[in-house]
Amino acid sequence: MGICMKIIMLGAPGAGKGTQAKLIADKYGIPHISTGDIFRANIKNGTALGMEAKSYMDQGLLVPDELTVKILLDRVAQEDCKKGYVLDGFPRTIPQAEVLDKELDKLHDQIDHAIDVDVPDENIIKRMSGRRACVSCGATYHIEYIKPQREGVCDECGQELVLRDDDRPETVGRRLDVYHEQTQPLIDFYGQKGILKTVDGTQDMQDVFHAIVKILE
Ligand code: ADP
Ligand code: ADP
Ligand code: ZN
């Protein structure tokens, strides 16, 4: 196809960034890069990075910028990212966004679109408490809105679906506070750069996706 798109997904935890990022990645044949997925893979494999990240994630806090930036820059330096990528869950702080900008600048490159999936806090609680994730491949479902074919079983790989530790109600409130404090300022940051696009994330999954495709094309 020869198109190269670099996309950032913004939005609260549970807004549907991951769901949409996967659809975008499939449609345009670009990698979907989720820092949360990278951390969870490291936790599962018992790496030192995983152990450190887990201590923050379980509390609903952000993993420190230095650690997060390093894994993200390593990932986007890989060959498959030459054709573009969709970043899901990065950047989550202004310093992370600034480092990404600086690195892209060095390559005379830039982010093309920052897409804010807008969902009010009231809806977020229900999205996150109903989210179920595959223990093996990371696919996500919702017990009410996006059901797997067989309850508790992943459509993609047949493994078990679980409630993430950090999706328990005790942690969700903290994550929303952290979002408003540290991540929401990125909406203005990308707005000022003129690449911010907002979609109404309360619509059905497919309607949100159509709105995004319209923006991209
Ligand atoms: P969600 O999809 O619900 O927003 P993620 O899977 O993106 O959750 O992230 C899970 C957790 O991983 C976050 O709560 C945070 O602790 C950590 N994390 C992921 N991405 C970042 C990031 N860019 N900076 C700091 N911490 C991050
Ligand atoms: P994020 O990556 O922003 O944390 P997810 O993509 O994991 O969010 O979605 C959070 C939860 O909401 C999941 O259970 C997912 O299946 C569900 N979900 C995603 N998009 C929609 C939508 N448009 N309508 C209803 N539920 C959705
Ligand atoms: Zn699976």
Percentage beta strand: 15-25%
Strand runs, count? 8
Give the overall average pLDDT: 95
Low confidence ranges: none
The ligands found in this model are: adenosine-5'-diphosphate, zinc ion
Bulk shape: globular
Helical segment count:
9
Outline the biggest β-sheet: 5 strands, parallel
User: What structural class results from the helix and strand content?
Assistant: alpha/beta
Order of helices and strands: EHEHHHEHEHEEEHHEH
When the domains are counted, the total is: 1
CATH homologous superfamily descriptor: P-loop containing nucleotide triphosphate hydrolases
Query: What share of residues is helical?
Result: 40-55%
Q: Determine the N-to-C terminus distance.
A: 13 Å
What is the CATH top level name? Alpha Beta
Return the CATH topology: Rossmann fold
CATH architecture classification:
3-Layer(aba) Sandwich
Radius of gyration: 16 Å
